[in-house]
Input
Amino acid sequence: MKYMLLINSAPADLAEDVPGTSFEDWQVYDKTVKNSGIFVAGHSLADLTTATTVRVDRDGQRTIATDGPFAETREVLGGYYVIDVPDLDAALDWAARCPGSRGGGSVVVRPVAEFEV
Amino acid sequence: MMDSRAASAVESVFREERGLLLASLVRRFGDLDLAEEVTAEAIEAALVRWPVHGVPPKPGAWLATTARRKAIDRLRRDTTYAARLAILQVEAERAAPAPTAAPGDDLPDERLLLFFTCGHPALPAEDRIALSLRCLAGLSTPEVARAFLVPVDTMAKRIVRAKKKIREARIPFRVPDPDERPERLAGVLQVIYSIFTEGYTASSGPDLQRLDLAEEAIRLARILHKLLPAEREVTGLLALMLLIHARRGARTGPDGRMVLLADQDRGRWDRTMIEDGLALVHVALAGGPAGPYGVQAAIAALHDEAADLTTTDWPQIVALYDVLLTLTPSPIVALNRAVAVAMRDGPQAGLRLIGELADEPWLRGHHPYHAARADLLSQLGRTAEAAAAYRRALELAGTEPERAHLRRRLSSLES
Output
């Protein structure tokens, strides 16, 4: 069963400098995920200031926007993993081990929808 | 025409065996919906067959065999569904190897799996309660709806939503590993205690107590205690509920009016239930530091053993609240401790502690806080302040008997 772990970093003003969130911790976690045979996909995302939003209205008119300037006070999606594990408990364990769940950040676990063919 | 004796036999077997049967089917097929459907079909088959052929010698085993056969039939007809379940099964076995089946004819008791799944932290608290009542206590959806005073339709949607999350997010049917057991067990106990407290003092409605819910909670705790006899907090919770429920006959007057602990006719307390509770408290407190339910049960036991309020062992109760505060610090525990201190050292001492809690946002909207403060103020002769506090409590109280009690206090103050 595939789950996406959506990693939200803490708002800058609430971020805590706690153990387990260093660059080395991320490297160790990433390596563990990839060596455990559960890794399907995963990326970390570039800074939110580089984001661009596209909307197309009924008439096909395209609107392109940036959300900025960005408040420091909101959670920001910083990256994701898709993992393949037997059940939700296993997925929650991987989420809890992720450095992104510490220091005021959070990891949202979403099952990947499976459509019968 | 259905023989009424057979019908009631089916009903009682259904009530007793439903959770057991459901759990064993969930264990076997890994699907709650399938398990529920074939459980219902097996009951229907019994309703048709038993009045004609008589109740079989082992009704539970008969229902289990019938339900299993129906599940297998269904899987033969629906091969896509079967294929999906087969994958589930393989993955489930990979995650947790199946225990060897118990010898003999009896169903192995798999209800522990259901306790942990129904009480899973990934489900919203209200869904955990609804599912536990339905799957483990064997209540029908309309019964659960009535117990919580919500429309049947609302409750049905809640149960469907919870089952959908179990199925689609794949919340496993398994007993947590020992390292995560304490945390997960605390969640299961919380579900049972929430059912009990809702039954003990309904949060709204015309009646102060809803005995049916309190008794369902005790029944669930008894099942869990049987499954986990060595878990002292399970023992503690069962003891706590028995020791409180034992006072049910004295908590309300004949007109439904609320009677406080101070004025209760202790002769109407259920002595047998108190004895049961006391025996369990001793077990819950033995062998190492007690948990929060064990400590609360010990406090309830001190009340139940006392002849009246003045001979109650208040120093010991205050000491137990001190322990409880270190285990589960909360403004409610601090409030209860303040009331116990007032009984031990006088109203002035209690009022000082209550005053220290005045800034707790949660307590400001909690009517017992204002009522306790009003009681102490009135004992000190500070009538105007007491009346204001009773009025605030009256605005916040949820059930009619509680409001009536506060109105009586207020009017006796003014006369």
